[in-house]
Amino acid sequence: MSVRVGSWSAGGSRLAALAEHLRIPLYRDGYALVLNSGLTAVLGLVYWLLAAREYSPHVVGVNTAIISAMMFLAGAGQLNLISAVLRFVPVLGTLRRRFITVCYGVAVSVAVGCAVVFLVGVHVWAPDLRAVGSSAAMVIWFIGATAVWCIFALQDSALTALGAAVLVPVENVVYGIAKLALLVVLASISPRYGIFGSWSAALLISIVPVNALIFGRLLRRRHTVGQRSVTAPTRAEIVRFAAPDYLGALLWLAAVSLMPVIVVAIAGATSNAFFSLAWMITLPLIAVSSSTGQALVVTGAGDPARLAEYARKVLAQTARLVIPAALVLVLGAPYVLRLFGGQYAHRGATTLSLLALSAIPNMITALYVSIYRVQRRMRAVVMLLAALCGSVLLLGPALLAVMGIKGVGLAWLVCQSIVAIALLSMDSGALAHGGAGTSALAGRLGVVAALRRARARRFRRRNSGALAHCLPEGLALTKVEATVNDVAVGCARPADGTDEVIVKLALSDPAGASLRRAAAMLSALGNDARAGAWEVARPQVLAGGLSPSGRSYLLESRLSGVPISRRMAEGAPFEPLANAAIAAIAGLHERTAEMITVDSELLDRWIDRPARAVGTVVARSASRTEALDKLTRELRVWLAGRRLSAGWVHGDFVPENVLIDPQRAGRVTGIIDWELATICDLGAVDTTMFLLAAHSQLERRELGRVVAAVAGGQHSGTLPAAVAEVARGLPAPQDPRLLVLLCWLRHAASLITKSERYAHHPVWKRYNVNQVLDTLVRT
Predict the structure, then answer these.
(1) Total-model pTM
(2) Alpha carbons 604 and 597: distance in angstroms, whole number
(3) Which residues fall within 8 angstroms of residue 313, CB to CB, at 6 or more apart?
(4) Taking a C-beta distance cutoff of 8 angstroms, is the pair 91, 134 a contact?
(5) Residues 686-736: tens digit of each pLDDT
């Protein structure tokens, strides 16, 4: 009896754990949408099994091409508003009903127009499908089916966005069963077009009750997707999201929906029958990744700060479902297709195996598309899908002509794999925050990551050689940093065995001037009585001068602690780290603050000189030069003649320069790199610079791109509100945008002046200077 009780208890605990797991919307919605894909696959398998037995391969090939054309036109017509519904309905509040209604209306109107254009020119671009325009009844039916398919696609997104994803498999099962029943009925009534007729007529059985539920009960109830406060998007933000996303969706539709049409045109309707069955069986497996990705978009939209965490969970969830199913389908392809007849197994088994394998790298592609949609990085979405779909549409027909339909399967596998590897290589950071293991795996898989490691080794060798030849006597190198600027940095231990010191060696004249200024600033700070009570440690200058080779060097005491940037990369919560850093530097600001009037000398130091430095790298562009001049005038008007509190500032207050106790996130152990420090400056510059640099690291974007997003009003995170809070400490007019641009101007100028590398680096200039000024040109 005790054994049974124990077993019952263990089973109960497992059920309780499962119930708790399914209470999490990210998992619950993901599983519901995956279940929908699975049920759709099963019903689709039965549907095409019956179709293959009731209709000839030629009729199957023609009907699948018509269905593919209809789905492509519907997809083109609905402007990919599916993604817009998923992304924005969770945060639109009372505007949800109006937004969904407008999406329905726009999608149906455009889809009808697309269908009409298609039918008018069907004899030109799809002569094998000219039968769809052979009669008025067929024309009306095709146009109506295209319009209704739009609503059918959008209603699934509406259910998911409204927190009712569990109903999606229910309504699709109803549709699948109705489609099966109509297929049997129409086999004798319409032997030529019964497949298309059953596929489209069954839609009416689904959309009527589902939309009655959406516009009745679901839109009346309160719906929340996250615990964080998220600002509702403006109309302009929705347009900026939907327009490029539509372009990406068209590319995907072209690759997916038009492939049977391409096969018909090149290999004929009979070959398309064998390809289309393999394709239809594979699509639900590919849809698993899209389904879990949709759940990620809904959940991530409501809690964007945890997007990387959600993405890793979704990837693990998707892999557990897709990889085993894909491998089973690869091994069982001949047996699955044998259900449709010996011809299908003989001609389509290899194609099905290759297409099933392509579903594995597709997990990565679909995941990144969802991540970029949450982040509103729509250019990245378009570039990703353009790379994938463009390569498939080029390689697929080429291999089809050479290898037959198995060439299309090979094209999908090759293109999906290349794109997935490229994503993991170039943007492994999308999964890295809070997940060092995932980041490391992605990095090991990536060519770009390998190149970065090689570059780091090259810079270490450069720095090591420079320090070894120029190190003062009595010091032995113990560690060399992989710096990319003009200063070689390492740790050295004196011959007497005392504590290690930091040694910095200038590799250029500007870097030498920077080191000398750092020594002067640290000396001045140490001699300033006002900063005497400030408890945060800073390096002590132990020695300095010229090395035997004539290069400037500096020896500093080594401080304890690890950089905040490292703790952020390891996944430590950002808020405690930021609070500790800002509180630490605020102590210096408060102890040294004095009221000053901003005069021409300060304006020149704060604005004009940095602007002249930035101007040297944009001199060839009249529009950017004009934007820089306009910004300079705005900043001068903003600050000129104002009474402000100013004192010591660090000048390069970024997470990399703030050391923190690894055991106590709230204790700053030191602040390093003081070469940009000034005695009379705005404390808000330090705080804002820290926020900008930290968000640059969190978002895995260049700092200039973050600044451009804030300046253009396109940043959807918490950064604008945080900077606005900092700006409240300044006298009116309090302009967070100008505060961000002032920090950017001075930061960019400092890099240009202290290192020759930045002024001649095209990639750095593009993302950190040109993109900001181009944004100012447009605003």
Answers:
(1) 0.52
(2) 14
(3) 26, 27
(4) no
(5) 999 999 999 998 888 889 989 998 888 877 678 888 888 888 877 666 678
